[in-house]
Amino acid sequence: MLDYLEHGGSGDCRALMVWLHGLGADGHDLEPVADMLGLSGVRHVFPHAPMRPVTINGGMSMRAWFDIAAPDLRVQEDSTGMLASAGRVAELVRALRRDAAMPVVLGGFSQGAVISLVAAACGVPGLAGLVAMSGYVPRFLQPALPGLRGKSVMMAHGEQDEVIPFALGKAGCETLVQAGLAVDWHAYTMPHTICREEVADLAAWLKRLLAAG
Known about the structure:
Blueprint: E1 4-7, E2 15-20, H1 31-37, E3 42-47, E4 51-54, E5 60-63, H2 79-96, E6 104-109, H3 111-122, E7 127-133, E8 152-158, H4 166-178, E9 183-188, H5 196-212
Parallel strand pairs: 2-3, 2-6, 6-7, 7-8, 8-9
Antiparallel strand pairs: 1-3, 4-5
């Protein structure tokens, strides 16, 4: 099972949120974002991706949810690696849920956003919603997207993103909408990062989601 960190695991929890970090980072990377949300009663879990060689970085080994072969991220998609990581995320959620009725939210940044989408489409127990920050929708996943209908989705992207182009992120949103999903889309004047405005929008989205549940 994936190694992980966690916040807010003691006492009564009304939801479980699993945060998936980006390429070369680890679970610590998104801890400050969770802290900034200011939400009580949420158990935040931050898994570490496994170490693996990454082709685009000269085969250097680092924490990564899947391999990247080329700057064009949808060329030679590592669907095998994505599905394997998605399966490990689902396994972790099954192990962590203390209450069968507890809603689960997946949230990810960059590579983590991709895996949040793949895991959600493949099936995560108790999934209520997912957040994809500065990510994209892999081509191979498109036939499975209708299975996400009825789930709450928030997507956000920087208009100056130099790593995952804004157009690719926006196209992913449009793909989800065409599959019948309602997507809460947000764009920000920022590069490949997370800004305070985005965190505020995420906090408001989560409050609505958990209140509805």
